[in-house]
Amino acid sequence: MSVNDPKPAENALPRELTRPVHVGNVQVGGGAPVSVQSMCTTKTDDPASTLAQIGRLADAGCEIVRVAIPSAAVLDGFQEICAASPLPVVADIHFDHRLAIEAARRGASALRVNPGNIGSWDKVDAVIDEAGAAGIPIRIGVNAGSLDRAIDAREDLTQPQKLVQSAVSFVRHFEERGFTDIVMSAKVHDVPATIQTNRELSRLLPHVPLHIGVTEAGTLTQGTVKNVAALSVLLSEGIGDTMRLSLTADPVEEVKVAWELLAALGMRRLHPELVSCPTCGRCQVDMIPIAEEVARRLQDVKAPISVAVMGCAVNGPGEARGADIGMASGRGEALLFAAGESIRKVPEERMVDELFAEIESRFGEKGEA
Questions:
Q1: H or E stretch at 181
Q2: Which run of H or of E encompasses 268?
């Protein structure tokens, strides 16, 4: 830790001790809320499609978006994207340091580079200098496939040890050049290795904000499970300043899962919490499609409330007593309740509409607080 960094506060969480780094208007680190990121799957030389996807990501709650720069041919499109994007845009660069330099000049809010595949230190240093001149941060991204070559060749080290040693060596080099506007990530597809690596990075680099996530995690179901398994541990320990939950799926799904994770941990909430029973033999209605319909419509509600959907009119309000508002179904009708107290009974065919009418009346248009 630099002598210029503040002394750690007693009992502070690791994320409260990292340096603040600004990616556009989003603060990463320094105790800021854990931010949600994703990456575009569109072609960067198609600005219209890319901006449309960024718009959908922003609507879902994404706060930082990454865009690939595979060649110089996409730089004009990248510049157009940066100029019109509602979110700060991170340029994702591999192999060619000249692309990183040009992206910084074309409006990138940050650069993501892996020094392990950029080449010589002279090339890395040229990127550092350009980022410094542009006043933008660099995310140093290390993964199992592109480590520091000398460290990767060592057979006495485990994969997490290689990731950590590579990351630490890169950070030290950047800081020795006077560049401290750094976010660090070290990613692998294995859950235990992800946890072990980030715990050690937090210990060895307590001042550097960490971007966390499981890379190459898989499709929607498997990828969600792996990311949640790893990140719930790290986030609950106070480790991680920003995150991307990589999924082989529409990137909007990454954002949705990220917010659900933050909400489940009690850290941040974008949409209401849905409390729904798993159904049983007492249930008098087809609960699964009803709960799914409520969940879908809650995506348009902007209020940090809890909404219960229960299948038993007798026990429902009691079981969901902590919910702000909800309904409990019975034969042919449902009971609306708020804070565990009954409001009125409504017919089964109207129960979802009546629930949302009650949400609007209590929390404003579309539930906005």
A1: none
A2: none
CA nearest neighbour of 215 among 39, 58, 10, 30: 39
Task: Report H helices in 137-219.
Answer: 149-152, 159-176, 191-204
Contacts of 267 (CB under 8 A, 6+ apart): 33, 34, 235
pTM for the full predicted model: 0.87
Helix axes 97-105, 121-134, angle to 10 degrees: 10
- What is the tens place of the pLDDT at every residue in 207-260? 999 999 998 888 999 999 999 999 999 999 999 999 999 999 999 999 999 999
- The whole-number pLDDT of residue 311 equals 79
Tokens linked to 200: 């050690």
Q: State the CB neighbour count (10 A cutoff) for residue 219.
A: 11
Output the furthest CA–CA distance in the chain (Å, rounded): 74
Tell me the two tokens of residue 32. 């800021």
Which residue carries 């969940």 as its tokens? 295
Q: How many residues in the chain? A: 369
